[in-house]
Write a structure and sequence with these properties.
Order of helices and strands: HHHHH
Strand content: under 5%
Shape: elongated
Distance between the termini: 31 Å
Number of strands: 0
C-alpha cells in the first residue's frame, strides 16, 4: 500500500526504496564489493530523487531535468556497467 508523505514527493521513499532493501549488506558471493557499492549508489540516488521531486508535478520535462534525475541515470548506468563485468549469474 502506498502512503502519502508531506515531506517527500507524492509517495514516501519507502514505497519505492524500502528501508529493508537499503539495509541489505549485499554479501559475497552474490555481489562483489564493486557491485554492492554501485547498488548502494543507486539507492542513495533514488532517495535524492524522491526528496527533490515536487509533490505535484506540473511540468514533467522540468522535473526530469532536475540534477537529481540525471544523477540517478548516471548511477544506474554505472551499476549496469559494473554488473555487466561478471554477466548473468547461473540459475
Amino acid at each position: 500500500m502506498l502512503r502519502r508523505s508531506a515531506r517527500h514527493s507524492r509517495f514516501d521513499r519507502d514505497d519505492f526504496n524500502p528501508e529493508a532493501c537499503r539495509a541489505l549488506p549485499y554479501p559475497p558471493p552474490a555481489y562483489t564489493g564493486d557491485e554492492a557499492q554501485a547498488l548502494k549508489r543507486v539507492l542513495e540516488a533514488v532517495d535524492r530523487v524522491v526528496a527533490a521531486t515536487p509533490r505535484s508535478i506540473v511540468d514533467t520535462a522540468a522535473t526530469l531535468a532536475l540534477p537529481e534525475w540525471a544523477a540517478l541515470g548516471a548511477a544506474a548506468r554505472h551499476a549496469l556497467t559494473v554488473m555487466s563485468v561478471r554477466g548473468r549469474l547461473p540459475e
